[in-house]
């Protein structure tokens, strides 16, 4: 908010001086338009400035016709608003409702209507909104520092969640508060919002790598939610669960690595082979727990599949050199 206030103050000052330099009448109106033109992101600033200029041109045309035909009466202002606003909504220019109203009142106060007056209003629009848009593009706070901090904390949370699952599989009497789940969800929302702002501040980039990263983590969180439900069904400690716990423990480290190591996937394949060599369940209780463990393995494969699809993969040779 502090940066936006500073940018607004600079835009107001610059637009007034530029309007005076070009000899535009009522230069203070350029400053008022500049206040409306400063926005939160570069792309949004460009979109809204276009909408405001287009809406204001519609307002200039309509108000000039109505005031010229019906006279400069107060009730004509209301009529102008009744006609103008639905037109702006229909043309998808509703962001320009305020600036178009400012222009309409300015024309009402500056009577009579002349070509020179209309050109002066257009000049005010271009100077005020143009200056604000330019300042918006020149400087916008970067989100990288915040995004890196959110990513680091999120990966710590995910690692903690996977470790907690591992500990439960080793000892079903282990109690976990689940606080990491709530924190991870909150961090995901913050990360997606920050990634959206970062993308909005990049004029040439259509999709942010940060957006892809947090979407990947969001998919994995959905998978973790399903795994938690399955883990709750594992009410007895079995050798099968202890073997699977080792995979989760390894994954709790891999989840913090930038690239896809494939170590957890290989451990899963080895575990599946071990499972096939184990004897069949001897009791209903063992059958239910092993069934839940099997479903947990399938969900874990889906979790790894998301990482494999999205993360950078490196070859065994690169891993040796690292």
TrEMBL record:
Predominant location category: membrane
Membrane association type: Multi-pass membrane protein
Transmembrane segments: 53-85, 121-139
Residues covered by the Putative aromatic acid exporter C-terminal domain: 144-306
Protein name: Aromatic acid exporter family protein
Annotated organism of origin: Paenibacillus vulneris
Subcellular location: Cell membrane
UniProt key word Cell membrane: yes
Keyword list, A-Z: Cell membrane, Membrane, Transmembrane, Transmembrane helix
UniProt xrefs under Pfam families: ArAE_1 (PF06081), ArAE_1_C (PF11728)
Cited InterPro entries: ArAE_1, ArAE_1_C, ArAE_1_C_sf, UPF0421
